[in-house]
């Protein structure tokens, strides 16, 4: 029986790992998880407990999130994680290490896999985002990892460009779709009851906006404009606006202030903190459009065939499935884009027909099928003979 | 005054850094050095003391070399170094981090530079060596570093291939040549006296062979064949053989056993442990050829216009300036190659004319001139907007 | 010039170090500070900035506070601190390490001093508090430290009991009194204005109560009772109640809930979050009594000649200067004790005459005078020849 | 089933743990071992493999031995061990941590036990040795550990003196005797054959001398004198001298040089590097006396009823069972003491009657019987209410 040791540091990334790990178990792999970073923080609700409840064996809890906002936090954190994970990896002797993305746990896992001679599977390589310290990390991970699962064909091609061997790369698509597909349908009546907000007699749009690290100062004002634009548009068309709270990155305090002011000013606006996943998914299923700047609009909305209005620079440059309108912070532009997203029937019909570049709900199976056929005795998987 | 914090873990890499740091000081930079890894080990002669004697300020001594031969050594070692270096980098607030190559200190420095937002200069990127865990590290460093000094034009091009911005790359050539050029000449009489071995009345060839991590088991037998071939060839032509002990990598014990046997069997053979640099350089200046598998044969011999016989797989695939014959472990092939290297006057004349792809003794000046013109306030140096 | 490296992790402990460090500087020592733990946390207001403003050189910032409430936090934190502080101590080569109390930084500093062969001064040994994991740490520090500054004669005697050499022990008394003595007087009018609460026309009592780790569950109810008792007593005598928020230990949330309820119920009660030190000290100078369970009541109130009502188990067993009444959670007992503290003129007169076992404002001078006469070349200071 | 997690860093200390762990298993405890430090070093023969062969589950391998002779080695090493062991302890959730002595693993384990709230058993407390950095560590461990197993009644009393609760202390005696008792007898003919040295026709004395950290410079000269004295005495009485190589502490190089010279000079002298335990034990069983300064002479020789000549300061001040003569570095004094040890029949008879203060082969059973009756739910074991 082959063993996979997955490494995860935060809820969002675990949501992607979860269906893959379940598929690994289904296909007879032994699975265990090293949890670290934000999962172990009270401030982040100790999300490691969810992983335990999901039935995975916790190989180790590796504390590496330092309580500071200085730049040392992530730098020293990577060091602590590498030191701790080395201990775990030697004891567990997994056949595969598995990690996602561009964060501290990604680079730490790839470094450990490289030196400990354990095949390392990296999910999400070749996806160029620009503007923060995560981006080069993602590409450094690709140079270190032995096996690449890319979420789009274009990203797989980027991995070829930077010199990775073709046979190490799988275009698996986005593994989180199977999660979404598995969530049971809820009626609008149920949702309305849960939210205590009428989205039965009226249609609604959804607003979800995070701060951007290079525009922290402007985040409050930007949110005010976004709220104004959405509520005005909604009033014109007798719609409701369902808002979702931002993540906890710097700038979020200012956004929350604007949320509170907005809720007092506009009766057609209501914001929600953390919604159970099955509620959130059903809100997205039923909304006319998603406005804001969530990565969901890029990566998951195509799966729902949902038109998206992306406001500002966040997500700019990522692969657009054809469902996203990018607009700047200008009220009339935003309203125009909302108009198109909600009521332009040609556009909406075209989105129904889009071919999702991020794959479909078969990603997890593709990944495990690919890994299964790997001969872990074959040294060519461990030693790269092509690097550029 | 701008400040450079160099990070070094071992003598060989410090030899490359030394002339660059001297040039930085000459051009008005403040220089300090974080020493780590083998420099701090008694088993490696505490080479950090040499750095102190050279007059550089030691910013911190960061212990990270664990006393074990298990794979955990390098993996956990990187973690410890990142943790320690983060502390140093925050205190020193250098304008630039400077590191060489493909070892633990290379990746640790690039990770710290990335998260601590300090411009990181990486020397030696784009040079594809294959067969061990260092190779992917070198390329991961290139994805993280902000400024690249490549030692050959072909290597600079490899950096472009993997998606680095053109304006971040300098083809500086090999910085160690200035070291070599500065070593005073010694006569063969002086060398002979120092070695207590006659290389005045007779010409000599030099043998320097290290183990290869993927061929550890064969290292003894391979050395035996190399010694046999060299001494037989030498006897035929009335030459001496000057041997140098290998590095301490796994397999070296078996090599040393063969050295001891060889010295008893062959009167024209004598091996030396560690030679002072000024002796070693002058031995190379006067030898007919260098046999074995040292990286010197590839990277430095072109500077001496010296023919080289590279035996076995180590160094295979690196850029050949035209002075290297690659042969396998076959006595007649080795002897043939030695014959050509020592006595084929056409071949030797052509080597005198070679254009060295690894540059010349101006590398250090090129590097410092390049760094000097960088505006450290300009954020485009810090944030990569091209990654593939 | 001799050098002292002080190690500090939190504001409260730095308040004790500050006047000692100033005295060291005054007497010609070089002083530097390694800051760690809560000082570096945003959640704790980055108090390291205050140390910088006070003009001390920061030797290193050593992140060791992990963002988790699991028990691993303090355990792994000590490990990180030892690793980081070793690096600092080797570079700085201080003549003395200086640390206070019973926390992670205390044990880490004493371990580093022991192995790095640096004379270690420990403040606050021999003071037995019971009930949490800090207590054995304090006594382990005493076995490791080379020089002991005890805050009371009884505590100095405890150090003798556990086998420490007499000549290593100074009964310095509590060093924080010099801080208090230096704070300028403020009139009650000024205080009243600052607090926006009338303490001019009416006398007042002060309430400051922290949670206790072994009674976390009861902390809310205990606070409710304390508030009830104080406000009832105050109403009877036409007094005001000035409350201070608790520290952030587990149980504090429940206390804060009761504070909020109390402020709505009782008009003669007002609570304050963090008061500037000069305001706080002057409130204490003018209050009739201090109720609650702050260590201030034990350690500092004797200096003010202030009667204290200590409610519950916290502080029980510490040396009572004669100014503290211990009562349990029983309203009539509390009110009785408040009555005695505020209005029993015999008792209050006796407190004015108390001999403070915790010393006076000469502590810092005593400490530096003691250290000054130590011959750091004399090996008997480094090697203990009496351990029990 | 209750679980014990033992922590061990070096062969000598594991020899003490081994019979205790076997007894724990016999009495139904689950046992696992965290190995660290020298056990994981190639230079120390990777002794962790012996632990695996002995059938114990390795909970984790925790690298913490840094490859340097600077003082940072042990200081930073403790930090790394605490960090790694915290991870192990949280995962394993043992009922008891178990550790021996006065080394890095002792203090690291006691710190982890204290903060992680795991009952910590410390073996060997209250035994005052003087002269190096280990000694205060031993006593700091006693202040932190929850349960003490002392190897002599006098040591148990020392623990009372430093304020430990009576009911936490067991005078178990030395656990290693059961090891010795279990080693099968070998005839002198067998030994002679193994050593290739005649100890059949002649009686012999045994010499085992280590360096002392405070007398490193003198270690060569001291060894020369010891060898001279032993061989002269042996010649006079027609005896042989069986020598054992020293440990690897600083000073050992000089000792080894004298060993080599001595073996050339004296035909009745032969030294041995590492002897299998069953050979070594039988040599001790048959020798006339043990000369030198091994702790064996103090702690184990009483079990053999063996007279010992302790030369120099090492071991001075430890409890003498009546079998040890302490002499200084003076040839006639040494020879006199050897004379008494080998041939004074009154003295030898008295030693046969000695009451061993270090107990007997029942120590392991005593320890496990004591631990077994502990109610791990009873919080008084975890929280010390007596500290001085």
From TrEMBL, chains A, B, C, D:
One of its GO terms (biological process) is UDP-N-acetylglucosamine metabolic process. GO terms for molecular function: hydrolase activity, hydrolyzing O-glycosyl compounds. Residues 25-372 form the UDP-N-acetylglucosamine 2-epimerase domain. This is UDP-N-acetylglucosamine 2-epimerase (Hydrolyzing).
